[in-house]
Design brief:
It is built from ten helices and 13 strands. It is of the alpha+beta class. α3 runs antiparallel to α4 and α5 crosses α8. The longest helix has 26 residues. It is globular and about 55 Å long. Pfam families: AASDHPPT_N, ACPS. One of its GO terms (cellular component) is cytosol. Its EC number is 2.7.8.7. InterPro entries: 4-PPantetheinyl_Trfase_dom, 4-PPantetheinyl_Trfase_dom_sf, AASDHPPT_N, P-Pant_transferase_sf.
Length: about 300
């Protein structure tokens, strides 16, 4: 029998569903974008409420993330629960976390979580309800953050997030010394990557619990020994890997109210130069599959009938 794993998908929406050529001054708006043939087809695969929410965004880039996120949810439900696309309905569970509620209670169930940032959408999922999952994508905003750090100093910049991190985490983030020293810009860039690794891991863990970054216990959830995954370019330079994927790092120590947590699986992986993706699972026994980059036509859309 094949081992059950947490499946992990990634979709880049930037090249998908191009806007029609031409138009008026509103040519960059979602309303204009949605008139395109490809966008109309994809939007037509969503439920009415999902489509309406996607079209509320002014910028097409945001609408495409919403569209891609919903398409992946439907595909995950259809694949895992063996139901037709029309029955792959996304519902809300506790804390408004998206979920699938089978029409027949004895039917197959699914746990999944979705994140999107930049132009990427990630979904992690597994059959059943016993394992809880969380995923988070971050895209570093180098120019904006670098300008702020140069103005106020890195410690002051890190202290802005004291409501999210424990005192020890803030100290680790502010005092981080890059393993490879370079010029000032390179060192600040490395410190920012270290911060974003902390942020991404914490967000994934919190999403696994069904809470949000407003959870009252955030500062009591502490990560130690956070490793920063090398971006794709540095992996290429060391001949360790090719393509867009960078290093994967685990080994994070999780502490909650001063006690070590050992029953959660947590890892983070770099993608291209500016992205990191963290996955959190409440099972240390169920393996995490490698991320699969999806082709929307081949892997996501429902098969044409007839």
């Amino acid at each position: 029998m094949e081992e059950t794993k947490v499946f992990r998908w990634l979709l880049d929406v930037e090249p998908l569903w191009p806007a029609p050529v031409g138009g008026s001054q509103s040519a960059q708006s979602t309303a204009h974008w949605a008139t395109g043939t490809a966008a109309q087809h994809a939007l037509g695969l969503l439920a009415d409420g999902e489509r309406a929410r996607a079209l509320r965004f002014y910028r097409p880039s945001d609408a495409k993330l919403s569209l891609g996120s919903n398409l992946l949810k439907h595909r995950a439900i259809a694949n895992t629960c063996r139901v037709p696309w029309s029955e792959a309905v996304v519902s809300e569970g506790a804390n408004k976390k998206p979920c699938y509620k089978p029409l027949v209670p004895s039917s197959k169930s699914l746990e999944f979580n979705v994140s999107h940032h930049g132009s990427l959408v990630a979904l992690v999922g597994c059959p059943g309800e016993s394992v809880k999952l969380g995923v988070d994508i971050v895209k570093m905003n180098w120019e904006k953050d670098y300008t702020t750090v140069m103005k106020d100093g890195f410690e002051a910049w890190a202290n802005v997030y004291e409501m999210v991190f424990s005192a020890r985490e803030i100290k680790d983030i502010a005092g981080f010394v890059p393993p490879i020293r370079g010029n000032q810009q390179d060192e600040i860039r490395a410190k920012l990557r270290h911060f974003y690794a902390h942020w991404c891991l914490k967000e994934a863990y919190v999403k696994m619990t069904g809470e949000a970054l407003l959870a009252s216990w955030l500062k009591d959830l502490e990560f130690r020994n956070v490793q920063v995954p090398l971006p794709a370019s540095q992996m290429h330079a060391s001949a360790q890997i090719g393509g867009d994927w960078g290093q994967t790092c685990g080994g994070v120590e999780i502490w909650f109210y001063g006690k070590r947590v050992t029953d959660v699986q947590l890892e983070i992986q770099a993608f291209r130069e500016e992205y990191m993706i963290a996955t959190s699972s409440s099972s240390v026994e169920m393996a995490l599959s490698v991320f699969k980059e999806l082709d929307v036509e081949r892997d996501v859309y429902p098969l044409q009938e007839g």
